[in-house]
Fold this protein.
Amino acid sequence: MTDAPGTYALLLRAGEERIIEVGALGAMPVRPGTYIYVGSAFGPGGLRARVGRHARGDGALHWHVDYLRAVTALEAVWYTHDTERRECTWAAALRALSDGTVPVQGFGASDCNCPAHLARFASAPSFDTFQARLSERCPDHASVERVGTNDLL
Ligand SMILES: [Zn+2]
């Protein structure tokens, strides 16, 4: 991962049942399972700066995902340095995976028409399946990589 722009997915593991407040979205029930949040970083510092911030979990609660990040463990990050913003495509591909559900309407999707940029899974979906679904949807999609949390801190 470099400071070039790109699109990323955070795999966030929730261990216990709780209810959190997510800014203007209000109350969100968090259940045990894997939440996958999709975002993109096209500003200064690119992907490395943004994902590093999510990995450390520091800074002010700014984006919807910051509230969820505060009560979950980051297990892995999937990313691409594709020069197109792929977050809406990634969110759609995740929702289409078996077992993928939208836990809260509008989460992370304030600037587009997606139901959410967050999907929930009882158990984490396969990276290989996700990659295959992306190339079906976008044959010109640049390569997708994955890293574990230890590589980000
Ligand atoms: Zn979207």
Notes: The pocket of zinc ion is lined by residues 87-88, 91, 109, 112, 114, 117 (CB under 6 Å). DSSP finds four helices and seven strands in the chain.
